[in-house]
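Re: the 191-residue chain
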Amino acid sequence: MAKYPRIADDIRERIKKGEFEPDKKLPSISKFCDEYKISSATAQKAIGVLKGEGLVWSVPTQGIYLSNGKAISSRYARACEIEQTLRERLMSRVYGYKFPSTRELMSEFEVGSYIALGVIHNLERSKSIYRPSKYGKIYTSEEAMKEYWALFIMEMYPHITRRGELAQIDPPLYRRLMRYGHVLNEIMPAA
């Protein structure tokens, strides 16, 4: 039997007994490892169970905190509300080819990066938006990205018809588009 459910149960009991205060930092993963004589992977799984229940939340590089109940639910509700608004905008094609960046979402909805990135991640996972690389621009779909680059190339270089010509005229753009090889294949013949 896996150890992490028992560890999660024990930490949950300690929370119920009042050993930890709401909105205060819990012991680190390494302290839980030492205390329970477990690996960090097991400790992280146990904390993950408690996160799923909304008992704790974590801030990367800062630690794990006991939830006060209100903070988690209000943050989650706000993220759901933003996600729904963005889905409606995507359905009604408010955004052209490009989806707003994390910073633009943070500014528009007045939220932190944690919520904005979570919403983007959920939209990506559900294939509502498309990002060809981890830190690249976000497009409303893969087709939108192809259309965007096709129009960009036609505007910038209307006389170019083959990829080889683009490689000679604008090597940085050519290399950038080669990262999305399937896109370049579809919008421009090879040689």
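The mean pLDDT is 81.
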